[in-house]
Known about the structure:
The structure holds 2 protein chains of 2 kinds. Residues 1-25 of chain A have low confidence and may be disordered. Chain A contains 7 helices and 40 strands. Chain A is 13% helix and 37% strand. Chain A starts with a helix and ends with a strand. In chain A, the strands form 7 sheets. In chain A, strands 26, 28, 29, 31, 36, 37, 38 and 40 form an 8-stranded antiparallel sheet that branches. In chain A, a hairpin with a 2-residue loop joins strand 34 and strand 35. By secondary structure, chain B is mostly helical. Chain B contains 16 helices and no strands. In chain B, helix 7 packs antiparallel against helix 8 (134-144) and helix 8 (134-144) runs antiparallel to helix 9 (152-164). The N and C termini of chain B lie far apart (56 Å). Residues 1-25 of chain B have low confidence and may be disordered. The chains are: A mainly beta, B mainly alpha. Chains A and B meet through helix 1, helix 2, helix 6 and helix 7 of A and helix 1, helix 2, helix 3, helix 9 and helix 11 of B.
Amino acid sequence: MNTLTFRILSSVALVSMASIQTSLVAGELTRGPYLQQASSDSIVVVWRTQGESAPSLRFGKSPSALKTKVAGDAISLRVSADVDAFPGTPLLYSEPLSERARRKKERDPSTAANTYQYEASLGGLKPNTKYYYSIFDGEKLLAGGDAEHYFETHPKIGSTSDMRLWVVGDSGTGGKEQTAVHQAMVDFTKAEGRPIDHYLHVGDMAYSDGTDPEFQDHFFEPYQTTLRHTVCWPAMGNHEGHTSRGISGFGPYYDAYVVPTRAEVGGVPSGTEAYYSFDIADTHFVCLDSHDLDRSPDTAMARWLRADLAQANAKWLIAFWHHPPYTKGSHDSDRERQLVEMRETFMPILESAGVDITLTGHSHIYERSMLMDGAYATPTVAEGVILDDGDGDPSGDGAYRKSVGLNPNEGSVSIVSGHGGAGLGREGTMPVMRQIILEHGSLILDIQGDTLTGSMLNLHGEVRDVFSIVKRGKVTPQRIQNPWQPVHDLSLLTSVHFDYRRPETMDTLEHWTTIPEGHSTFTSATSSVTGDSILSATASDAPLFQLYNPWSLHAFDIEGQVVLTGSDNPGIALVFAYENDANYFETRYDATTGSIRLSRVDDGVTALVHEREVAVARDAVIEIGVEGEGQEVEIFYLERGKPATELEYKVQLPAPIPAGRVGFALPGGGSAEFLWLEIQDESR
Amino acid sequence: MRSPFVSLLKAIAALLFLNPAVAFPHDNPIHVVDTITERIQKSHATPRLLIARAYEYRSLGEWRYALADYRAALELDPLSTSALTGLAETLLDSGAPAEAEQAAELALALQTSAETRAPFHALKARSFEKRERWEKALEQWTHALASSRPEIDWFIGQSSCLARLGRAEERVDALTDARKRNPSVVLDQLWIEALVEAGELDTASQEIEPRLQKSRWKSAWLLLRADVRQQQGLAHDAREDARTALAEIQTRLHPQRPDPHLVQEAAKAHTFLDDPEAARHRSP
């Protein structure tokens, strides 16, 4: 919601509310109720109905005694674009006409017709107090009035922190992993008898495009049991950015949330919902928009951050946004501009103001750094920027230590929590990270007085990482010139990619095994056909296997663009489930016989599983691929520039694919030139 | 009757197309580029695919490829606002502001309302600023700010141009108006800076004091107060403020990789301390 607009229009909206109350048409609850913008004396409760209603909210200190009623001008209204509301009533998202012709009918991103969104502002509350609530349409109870519909006001700003935060990123798939991650948190906190107090979402909460229906299906419904009693403080992800814009504060993301713009919950006014700050007890929180705002040092967001931090007088400082300053998960913070700019522009501002924790997502992985400071260089290196290279675990190497209060450049911990539900990925090793875990999960942060503890909880409810920061006395940070660094273990990556356009991807060539050794070459070269830089493979006098060493996979995707250049025996096979040269599977693209054959070689005996006649081209760029999981193999073929040659089909195997190495094979005398080749581990 | 807000939202909604909503399974830009390239190879290039790929190239800082894709998109659809906008933004990023201005002008000509024109005026303003054509830039910022929902950065642009042109009183007026339209602390700070620049020293002092007291990091306000005191002929007091500010800045400067903004503040403090050599040394 755009609060500014709201305030201006509130009096107009009231007139509309009055007209609604006279009509008394029953509205069906379609979203919420959920909580927003809590402070020590106020909160906003939001819900939607399909059709008009006569909204009111009742609250009190017991579910059976909801004595205070909120109605009238304390409840703001927004409506879907089709509703013929009073002029000036703010509208919920409706797709631009220019976009409608481009998309499939079933993917309408707009708010459903006849939608009414109510935002009830409750003020004059007591700090640190639990209230129960219910919402009504006239006298009809829509939700609440039970033990599950409650909210707790914040403690007074400046009081000692005693809070539990739940941090989630990249969760909005609506899939089983998202549900399991949520349930794991619920079960864990229940078992500990310590529920979460606040929820931070670091973006990508509604895949794929952050549309209004996706918000409903992938965010509000999966999390409703939490959202009805816990405020979610959001940061916008790039997927929400497909339909929402930070600059104008417009779109389904901004419809869904009510966040401070005028320092309603501490901090200084940002004048926009794209970035904001708030205080809870003695912890200051900053949320930035890393997606679609200018990230230059002299623009509004950077200036606002400096002003906000200059005034922040807290004991703890936590910043969160979407694009991580440090990652080698499914994204690379050394390559991608948004990530580089967040590191180069915003980390110096935050660290010179004493930030303790930065929380991000975007990269679908859990990465947690050592205590570090000043890692602004590109590419990121660990040397000279680590202040404590231990694991930070109180029962391991011990907690990280900082001085009391917010002190510049005493170190922060950077956490990528992009593992909330979307498919995981790791393409490298970030040297400043102490923990890199490729499992779905979420992060629980406990702040109690001078100690902050982070626990990564996986989707099975297991705690997979624990670290603490303790702020006591005066600590003088020491920079470690040669700190501990994580091992770059190729077997832990989820994809390997060679590309003639990107020389750095050729580094892993050494990790391929050639069988038999010495009878072939696999090297970078210049194509005799296209003139491009390519990977050249040649089998001199015997059949050749090239196998990617670090992996043994049972679910995989092998793809490449290749030119078959061997004149005697033109063909190539993509190999999987390789145990040895007498036991493996292959999909062979054979230009001589004009076929694609899927075979199993068992104890040296080849058994054909499936064959398809295809005019496999020689001396032309062809794209080939095989993807396997369970008992299914999907095969792909295309001759570049000839769409009619495209072929994609599935073959069922009699038994599941066994785990084994993957790669390709050439017949004796065969040779091939790869423009690119990519293998992905699909098992995680 | 529909509210004016409806047309405004529709206008803004149209601009959403600036950010291509083409969903791909892997959103790592390198993979997205590969996926789009494959799609183009399998079928043919469409403006939408080219614009989407250009966006990814921009996120990788690969201006040359991004420009090529935007231009190819414009060959297929010369009236594509998103291609023109992307082209203009990329030209600005890659240091070609004159060409950026031309692209923005073409996009501007395609817009039919003041609301949709506003961002393109802003784009033109930025391209003029890059060429230090402050009058021209100011003219464009003024057009952009006619929008009912201007961005905070547009107010900053207008203020910066007025400062460059030495039109201090106009700058105060513009920021007074800006503060009425948006509560951002950034505009509040700029307004006080403008008061100092315009010689409205008493008002500025009154505004600085409470903010100075409220701040944990005080250097920005101390330096502004030093400016006021200097202009009031209180050179000794100005130096005291600068000294205090410098001491605070030094506790915050990273030993190897200082925040450039703090370095800038340190340089300013040295200027008040009549230490031009240190000021020069500190200038980023």
